[in-house]
């Protein structure tokens, strides 16, 4: 989806690129106080560590395709 979005934007004359870091969404709602503010029922922070296999097999592909 990322590569297609960038291609569509560039075809329309817009300069576009992948701007977020790999695994960035892991940080969203990781802290209990932020998550509770949105109604999530967690009482402690959650680890955002991503192992090497998961990083390469799941998260890296959209960025590699976009380049």
TrEMBL record:
Belongs to the glycosyl hydrolase 3 family. GO terms for biological process: cellulose catabolic process. Keywords: Carbohydrate metabolism, Cellulose degradation, Glycoprotein, Glycosidase, Hydrolase, Polysaccharide degradation, Secreted, Signal. GO terms for molecular function: beta-glucosidase activity. The keyword Signal applies. This is beta-glucosidase. Its EC number is 3.2.1.21. Pathway: Glycan metabolism; cellulose degradation. It catalyses: Hydrolysis of terminal, non-reducing beta-D-glucosyl residues with release of beta-D-glucose. Gene3D superfamilies: Glycoside hydrolase, family 3, N-terminal domain. InterPro entries: Cellulose_deg_GH3, GH, Glyco_hydro_3_N_sf. It is found in: Secreted. It comes from Paecilomyces sp. Beta-glucosidases are one of a number of cellulolytic enzymes involved in the degradation of cellulosic biomass. Catalyzes the last step releasing glucose from the inhibitory cellobiose. The lineage of its organism: Eukaryota, Fungi, Dikarya, Ascomycota, Pezizomycotina. GO terms for cellular component: extracellular region.
